[in-house]
Automatic annotation (TrEMBL):
Native organism taxonomy: unclassified sequences, metagenomes, ecological metagenomes
Keyword Cytoplasm: no
InterPro entries in the record: KsgA/Erm, rRNA_Ade_diMease-like_C, rRNA_Ade_methylase_Trfase_N, SAM-dependent_MTases_sf
Protein name: SSU rRNA (Adenine(1518)-N(6)/adenine(1519)-N(6))-dimethyltransferase
Alphabetical UniProt keywords: Methyltransferase, RNA-binding, S-adenosyl-L-methionine, Transferase
Keyword Transferase: yes
UniProt source species: hydrothermal vent metagenome
């Protein structure tokens, strides 16, 4: 796919292309911040669920930036040319949902995010088993580790989930 995508729908279009087994690569111009999220590596500030999804099927790379001065009228953002080379196709809706939970609050501990959906003791035991710090943040973990966590947390469940009952909030008086 080669495109200059409308910025307001770029993420959704790229996600669909990542899932499309007929799409082998993606070359698009998008807002710089979006390109950074798709191409970021573990440990980088922009590392997100979009980075994990990209790395799950191949790799993403920002080729170059396109400044606002190159457009008439000039936008208020910098654009980037993003290349995603796919090596395989993966379409796992449950894994995507897992990543949404893991990155829901990116500055919080990964264990805290996962404990909103999975059994807290199971999450902590699994992080320990994988020799991950209990204070690890979502952007600090590697893509392969997310696959391990997902597989381990869901392996004993027919529907792929160990969802806890929602916690009730205390009524304020």
């Amino acid at each position: 796919m080669v495109a200059n995508l409308p910025y307001y729908i770029a993420t959704n279009i790229i996600l669909k292309a990542l899932k499309d087994k007929n799409c082998q690569s993606i070359l698009v111009m998008v807002q710089k911040e979006v390109a950074q999220k798709f191409s970021a590596q573990s440990g980088e500030k922009a590392f997100s669920s979009l980075s994990v999804l990209t790395q799950s099927v191949g790799f993403g790379k920002i080729l170059f930036d396109v400044g606002a001065e190159n457009f008439i009228p000039p936008p208020k953002v910098t654009s980037s040319i993003l290349l995603i080379q796919k090596k395989r196709s993966e379409n796992n809706k449950d894994f995507e949902e897992f990543l949404k939970v893991a990155f829901k609050q990116p500055r919080k501990k990964l264990s805290k995010n996962l404990a909103t959906y999975y059994d807290k003791d199971k999450v902590e035991a699994l992080l320990n088993l994988l020799e991950l710090s209990p204070t690890i943040r979502p952007h600090e973990a590697e893509t392969a580790m997310y696959h391990q966590l997902y597989n381990e947390l869901n392996k004993d469940n027919i529907d792929g989930r160990t969802k806890q009952q929602p916690r009730k909030r205390k009524q304020s008086k």
